[in-house]
TrEMBL record:
<protein>
    <recommendedName>
        <fullName>DUF1876 domain-containing protein</fullName>
    </recommendedName>
</protein>
<dbReference type="Pfam" id="PF08962">
    <property type="entry name" value="Rv2632c-like"/>
</dbReference>
<dbReference type="InterPro" id="IPR015057">
    <property type="entry name" value="Rv2632c-like"/>
</dbReference>
<dbReference type="InterPro" id="IPR038070">
    <property type="entry name" value="Rv2632c-like_sf"/>
</dbReference>
């Protein structure tokens, strides 16, 4: 039997001066929410390219979210199995 589950990830960006920040939010099927953050800094001599700052900050926020999802999954494995699991980090 297969089950279809979907997640919606929201990303929001803010830019102040040469700093772009990103906030990522995912709501999971169990009702929990995880939030990730990421930042990008533009060197003062670089041209303004908002899209590039968003891509860097967004990827870092999603990487933060991915790390939290791995931690959550392994905590659930440990709780269910009664043993310590060993996460594979990429």
């Amino acid at each position: 039997m297969s089950t279809l589950v979907g997640w919606h990830v929201e990303l929001q960006f803010a830019e102040e001066g040469n700093r772009t920040s990103a906030a990522a939010l995912v709501r999971l099927a169990d009702g929990s929410e995880l939030r990730g953050r990421g930042y990008a800094l533009r060197h003062p001599t670089d041209p303004e390219q908002l899209r590039v700052g968003e891509e860097i900050a967004g990827s870092r926020a999603l990487a933060d979210l991915a790390s939290q999802l791995l931690e959550k999954a392994h905590a659930e494995i440990d709780e269910t199995s009664g043993r310590h699991s060993h996460p594979i980090n990429h």
